[in-house]
Write a structure and sequence with these properties.
The chain has 15 helices and seven strands. It is an alpha/beta fold. Among the domains are: 132-151 and 159-260 and 402-469, no CATH class; 297-389, no CATH class. The strands form two sheets. The chain has a five-stranded mixed beta sheet, sandwiched between helices. Strands 1-2 form a two-stranded antiparallel ribbon. A hairpin with a 6-residue loop joins strand 1 (131-133) and strand 2 (140-142).
Length: 469
């Protein structure tokens, strides 16, 4: 039989446990109420028409509306003076002031320029093709002019010229316009009647013409010292597939694949890729064992910020410390790029950052979110600060995210592709157009050259011919 004192101690312990459970229950009820409120807000927001574009509550101190003047962006305040004037109009000065009717004394002349679009109309070229038949093999032989696009020969056939095809490809794959809107624009802009199906078939033929250039871009990516990959969802025939991007400072390759694994990534990079991969924490990239890896710090910083939003009490210390170390690494990079840090001082700063991260990861983690982040950082610990050793390596995979943004916009406007052939055309045309943009080349000037050439043009030769003398 327990004594009276033991019963009192047991009663006190039970009361303490009951109070602790009531406190935990109250905290859980508050948490449930907050989550229910958040879920209801998400549901209500999802039913509103502007929900996909909402950024939450407006800022209490918003920036002034509109855009700043060009000189405030470091650009030229006024447009440069045109080299020539196509039309000159003399505007006489009024003889009397419109405000006080006083007599005006002429003081001189001033020049002002107005830049506008001329009247646009279709330019039709009639080709009189001399054709014959080979006396040896019996095949038909047709004359060809350098201004023709490489399309099939049919008597009396009316074809779309390379300029129209280049404009349609740019509007569809870069600007994100549908074939219907492109057809309407051509009708309004130039009075050119063309069907949506004609544009679709024309771009399919164009992509086949550009496939040799696409294969050359893939080869350049495979031999590139640094590659930035990323992937996003895509639709093909109503099914979910993946749009991949592999980019560097000079070339970009898109690829639409059925999966998001190593097999699909190696289709473009090759299994023996030995350069530097700057990517997020997706496990498929880690299977490139011959490559050197740099983990994207932006993804880690966003993860820390998300953890800090919901962490309480002591659980905030670990993500806060990780965030501080990563931000310090970015500050060291900025000092290096500004020429304020180099040599032994830079190496010492990098080693100090590695030591701080090692100490941060050596603790014991009881919070599940902190434990998962710590395990991720331990797996990628040797891949955090490579960008401090190599100036040609970025700390984040922003080039890939920037390159994949047009694909996301295109997916929203077009809904993806209907066939595998359409997906291949999408990848080829987007790759060529993006690469031309990286080299600051006009697609409306270069694409017609590619289409008119009887033989596939190499990228290096194309870049060399586009350089100013």
């Amino acid at each position: 039989m327990p004594t009276y004192e033991e019963l009192l101690e047991e009663n006190a312990e039970l009361r303490r446990r009951l109070a602790e459970q009531e406190r935990q229950n109250a905290a859980l009820k508050r948490r449930i109420a907050d989550l229910e409120k958040l879920i209801e807000e998400v549901r209500r927001r999802g039913k509103r028409q502007a929900a996909p574009f909402s950024k939450g509550a407006p800022s209490a101190d918003p920036k002034p509306p509109g855009r700043k003047a060009g000189d405030q962006y470091g650009q030229q305040a006024t447009r440069p003076r045109p080299e020539r004037a196509d039309e000159t109009v003399e505007v006489p000065c009024p003889l009397y002031c419109e405000h006080c009717q006083g007599k005006v004394v002429l003081q001189g002349k001033a020049h002002q320029y107005q830049v506008d679009l001329p009247e646009i109309r279709p330019w039709t070229t009639e080709f009189i093709l001399h054709h014959g038949k080979c006396s040896q093999c019996g095949r038909e032989v047709v004359g060809r002019d350098a201004r023709q696009s490489s399309q099939s020969f049919r008597v009396g056939n009316v074809q779309l010229g390379p300029g129209v095809l280049a404009l349609a490809a740019w509007l569809n794959k870069v600007a994100g316009l549908s074939y219907g809107k492109i057809a309407a624009l051509l009708k309004q802009l130039a009075g050119l009647s063309v069907s949506r199906s004609a544009l679709c078939r024309a771009l399919l033929r164009m992509s086949k013409r550009l496939e040799p250039l696409y294969d050359e871009l893939k080869a350049k990516i495979q031999s590139s010292p640094v590659v930035y990959p990323d992937e996003t969802g895509w639709r093909e025939g109503g099914h979910s597939v993946w749009m991949w991007i592999f980019t560097n400072r000079r070339e970009t390759v898109y690829s639409i694949e059925p999966g998001r694994g190593y097999d699909q990534a190696s289709e473009v990079l090759g299994e023996g890729f030995a350069g530097v991969l700057v990517a997020d924490g997706w496990a498929s990239y880690q299977k490139f064992e011959e490559a050197t890896h740099q983990t994207c710090l932006a993804h880690l910083l966003r993860r820390c910020e998300e953890m800090l939003e919901k962490a309480t009490r002591g659980a905030v210390r670990f993500p806060r410390r990780v965030k501080e170390i990563l931000q310090s690494a970015l500050e060291v990079r900025d000092q290096r790029d500004e020429g304020k840090l180099s040599g032994e001082a830079l190496e010492k700063a990098r080693q100090e950052l590695e030591l701080q991260m090692d100490r941060c990861l050596s603790g014991r983690f009881t919070n599940p979110d902190n434990r998962r982040l710590a395990q991720h950082l331990i797996r990628h610990q040797e891949q955090l600060f490579l960008f401090l050793e190599r100036p040609d390596v970025e700390a984040t995979n922003w080039p890939a995210e920037q390159g994949i943004r047009p694909a996301v916009i295109n997916r929203k406007t077009s809904g993806g592709n209907r066939t595998a052939e359409g997906s291949q055309a999408q990848a080829v045309l987007m790759s060529v157009l993006r690469t031309l943009q990286q080299h600051q080349l006009g697609a409306l000037e270069i694409l017609p050259q590619l289409l008119r050439s009887p033989q596939p043009l190499k990228l290096d030769a194309l870049l060399a011919s586009s350089q100013p003398p």
